[in-house]
Amino acid sequence: MFAINSKRGDTIAIAYLIGVIVCSSLTAQEEPGTLFRWNSSAEPKGGPPGWDEPLASDRPDFTEASCTVGRGVRQLEMGYTFFHDKEGTDSLQAHSYPEFLYRYGVLADWLELRVGWSYNSERLTVSGTSGTAHAADDLYLGVKLGLTPQQGWLPEMAIVPQMIVPVGGEFSAGRVLPGVNWLYGWDLTDFWSLGGSTQYNISVDELTDEVHGEFAQSLTLGQSWHPRLGSYTEWFMLSPNGAETEVTEHYFNGGFIFRVTNNFQLDIRAGTGLSGQATDFFSGLGAVTRF
Fold first, then answer.
1. Is the peptide bond before 60 cis (omega within 30 degrees of 0)?
2. Segments forming the whole domain that contains residue 231
3. Prior bond of 240 cis (ω within 30°)
4. What is d(CA 53, CA 46) in angstroms, rounded to the nearest whole number?
5. 29-83 confidence digits (pLDDT tens)
6. What is the CATH classification number for the domain harbouring 278?
7. Which DSSP string do the residues of 102-157 spell out, in sequence order?
8. How many CB atoms lie within 10 A of CB 42?
9. Is 210 helix (H, G, I), strand (E, B) or coil?
10. Residue 134: Cβ within 10 Å count
């Protein structure tokens, strides 16, 4: 009788251990994930935020989030931007809306599908003569891949193969324009965060309609004032490679983010050009919802 009870106890103990191992494995699989991890002993952090955490958005700054939204998560980001530029007696006023970006996590936490679209309205004054133009923008398509979490000073990273598809009106590029965007970021302290992006996209010279490459670089410094309130300051530049008339442009901008709930946020921003050919001023506002 004692031997039978002992074996039964061993069986129960083994079954319990197997259950613990299986549950731990399932829990690990359910955690936000990336394609890779750094060869570091530091604890990994980052990746797609959970439903009990504030959402991570690609707006309002130029630098997009270095994480995906997570499997099964849908996120809609929208906004409006006003642009003003003046050179001598010539001036440009433009409006962009709704700056639609739909992000959908599919198959795995590290994989995100992206669709973007906007509508543009411009009023151009040249030598005292004004004209207006209104047209849909081209369609943006992309796939964001979550590459690594942050581990110590090693950054959280993502990469976005992307393209512009010519479906717009007067402002359309008239051809498919592929590109790639490499994103990286660090949570430095509970208050400070740092992010950046390095892009190379195929673009079109607005005056000659000739195709050229365009390099873009950005750095953004984030501040967390309160669980519901954040801000950022950012520098970014656009540098054409092989363009006939376009030149490098530098910009500085900043803004605030207000998290109404974990799944809904509002934002406001403003910026200015730092170089002669850059747009003089721009400002905007937006909203993001996760569902």
1. yes
2. 31-290
3. no
4. 11
5. 445 589 999 999 999 998 999 999 999 999 999 999 999 999 999 999 999 999 9
6. 2.40.160.40
7. EEEE-SSTTEEEEEEEEEEEEEEEETTEEEEEEEEPPEEEEEEEEEE-EETTBPEE
8. 12
9. coil
10. 13
